[in-house]
Amino acid sequence: MTFKSILDEIENNLNKILSELSISEINFSVEPAKPGFGDVSSNISFLLAKQLKKSPKEIAEMLSTKYENCTNTLVLKSEAHPSGYLNFFANWDKLSQLILSESYLETCGDVDIGNDSTIVVEHTSVNPNKALHIGHIRNIIIGDTVSRILEKAKFKVNVLNYIDDSGLQVADIIVGFKHFGYDQEPPNGKKFDHYCGDDVYVKTTEKYETDSSLEEIRKNVLKELEDGDSETAKFADKITRRVLAGQLETCWNLGVTYDCLNFESQIIRSGLWNNIFEKLQAMKLVEFENEGKNAGCWVIRGDGKEEDKVIVRSNGTATYIAKDIPYAAWKLGLLEDPFNYEKYCEQPNSRILWQTTLDKTTPVSKNFTGEKVVTVIDSRQARLQKIITTLMGKFKSVPDAYNHLGYESVTLSSETAKTLGLETDGKQAQMSGRKGLYVNADSVYDLLKEKTRVETKKRHPEMDDSEIEKIAHSVSVGTLRYEMIKQDLDKIITFDLTKSLSLEGDTAPYIQYTHARASRILEKSGRTPTIDVDFTLLKEKSELELIKTVGLFNLQVRDATNNLSPKVIARYCHDLAVAFNSFYEKSKVLDLGNVELENSRICLVNSFKIVLEKALDLLGIKAPERM
Fold first, then answer.
1. Where does the motif 'HIGH' region lie (predicted)?
2. How many CB atoms lie within 10 A of CB 530?
3. What does DSSP assign to residue 437?
4. Percent of the chain with pLDDT over 90
5. Spatial contact of 46 and 66, defined as CB atoms under 8 Å apart
């Protein structure tokens, strides 16, 4: 039982009143109230105004009078607001007991939206030719956080990472190694993924600008990559897997794990495209163009505002989208699975990571498809994803079976760019892997960690190095993750190292520090918190506001799930921290001379601590006991 209990009670009673008035099909809302509108507020009066031919204020007054005759457990009184809203005031003696007791349960915050149905979340999908940069991190953290939220909402989540090991960017590093003689071992112990991106890829693409003859070499390499038996393809597989290993090491360090790696090269050779192309033709979803600039091509017709999209060129080769369509259909289980599976490794959290294989010698069957799919790809791919979403809707006959979760890019503040070695003339830094204008995620993590380590040592000189190391890791990972998801997905992020580490404002360290503060209170109390307390003693405004915020956890999980919005949980964690700090400033917990009141407040502090820890876990952020 949480704050939702009072919302359900009010909604049921209002429906009974409507039934008595012979009124039906009114889709009113009952929501936690804004300040000045009681504890719960409803818009029901506005929706009835036209039908009853009265003002919302008059209707609210009538409903408030009728509500007095309803059976109420959690509502103390109802009241008509002059604006027309119908407001309700909670019986906090009872509601506090429900909320705080619920918070101590393992299932706190759970909502059953998924009902154990399967859903695929595909994210990361970075070309295996370079290290992950700070722009990629937004994709990875969004995907991982959405996966965690969906699991909390009782979905069975299959997390996939699509490895584009046959595209142009891979061809570029193979040209570098094969034709420009780059050593396969990086210099001075440099990570292999950093070496490929910083040196081989950037310097090779620079050469294209001065030597046009290299374009033919590039095309030939790309063609050889698609032939799985060629020496070039085998060499590329060895190189890209070394890069992938470095990328995964970065992801694991940030607390991100997967269920399966899917390789584009295998999708191309699997025959999936032929199967889906036949379906597209049979369903008349593609057309052959006989004239014009696309003569001889197979196209998907535009909707009038957009041009037709070529999926098979006149020379018979498939375009980029032709690789994505069969993969999308496979994720939804619409095609027979052509893959076998083999164990890639055991990840740091003991989760087994599998990989697709076309090798039939040791058949292992797995199912990583889903009834629904969420694909996390940046907004620049919106048109392509719209086409795929529309096609999958027609195949599956379920409009929302395939979902593109888009997001905007990440830039670096001018000061942060300068700190990390990029000169931007005082402007924000835009990422460009091709031009070498990017900052790898490992470097940002290392710098955040070092800053945190120094500050922690300064605050706690008595701490041993291993504990400082643990705190520095938790704070630096928390900082990176929080900065990537605290804003709306359609907003560009400007990442700033100094601001993101502040112990004040909307930052991960502020929230983590609040958790550490609560831990310290409980430690100093020397008592084991319990729910066997007198909840009626919790009457102060700051106490009730904290209890209310604690009780909103499952409503926030529901909202985040329905809207695929990690920001909802990030905002909730911040609201929780703000509510606790307000309580802490106004309500002393220990040494009150009143053991019963102390126990009640200790119960509240522990309730906050438990819920914040669970909410932060949905964001993939650790809640340190000390900072």
1. 126-136
2. 11
3. B
4. 77
5. no
Sequence-distant (6+) residues with CB within 8 A of 406 are 377, 378, 379, 381, 382, 385, 489, 490
Residue 64, SS3?
A: helix
Mean pLDDT of 390-413: 89
Dist CA 458 CA 83 (whole Å)? 54
Question: Which amino acid is residue 606, in one-letter code?
Answer: N
Distance in angstroms (rounded) separating the CA atoms of residues 572 and 142: 16
2-90 falls under which CATH superfamily? Answer: Arginyl tRNA synthetase N-terminal domain (3.30.1360.70)
- Residue 426 is predicted with a pLDDT of 64
Of 157, 169, 161, 158, which is closest to residue 125 (Cα–Cα)? 161
Residue 627 DSSP code = -
Identify the three-state secondary structure at position 612: helix
**Separation between Cα atoms, residue 100 and residue 568, nearest integer Å:** 22
* Greatest Cα-to-Cα distance within the chain, rounded to the nearest angstrom: 90
**CB of 383 closer than 8 Å to CB of 320:** no
Beta bridge mates, 412: 429, 495
pLDDT band at 432 (very low <50, low <70, confident <90, very high): low
* Cβ neighbours of 423 (radius 10 Å): 9
User: Structure pTM?
Assistant: 0.93
Instruction: Find where tokens 């008509």 sit.
Output: 80
Which whole number is the average pLDDT over 522-539?
A: 96
- Helices 134-152 and 595-618: angle between axes, nearest 10 degrees: 120
Other beta carbons within 10 angstroms of residue 488's beta carbon come to 11
C-alpha to C-alpha distance for 62 and 90, rounded to whole angstroms = 20
Spatial distance between the Cα atoms of 5 and 101, rounded to a whole number of angstroms: 13
**87-91-95 Cα angle (round to 5):** 110
For the chain, the domains span: 2-90, 118-270+338-370, 272-323, 412-501
CB 198 within 8 A of CB 436: yes
Q: Does an H or E element contain 598, and which? A: helix 595-618
What pairing do the DSSP bridges indicate for beta strands 372-376 and 118-122?
Answer: parallel
34-48, 281-295, 492-506: least confidently modelled range: 492-506
> Is it the case that residue 304 has pLDDT exceeding 90?
no
Instruction: Give CA separation, 537 vs 91, 498, 578, 589, in Å.
Output: 13, 42, 22, 12
Backbone angles phi, psi at 19, to 5 degrees: -65, -40
Residues 6+ apart with CB under 8 A from 182: 176, 199, 200
- Model confidence at 543, pLDDT cuts 50, 70, 90, reads very high
* 370 SS3 class: coil
Residues 6+ apart with CB under 8 A from 551: 2, 3, 4, 95, 98, 99, 102, 103
Question: For residue 525, what are the contacts with CB-CB under 8 A and spacing of at least 6?
Answer: 589, 590, 598, 602
First to last CA, the chain: 33
Q: CA-CA distance, 98 to 547, in Å (whole number)?
A: 10
Burial of 116 (0-12, 13-18, 19+ CB in 10 A): exposed
Question: CA-CA distance, 406 to 385, in Å (whole number)?
Answer: 9
Per residue in 451-467, pLDDT (tens digit) is: 999 999 998 999 999 99
Superfamily, domain 118-270+338-370 = HUPs (3.40.50.620)
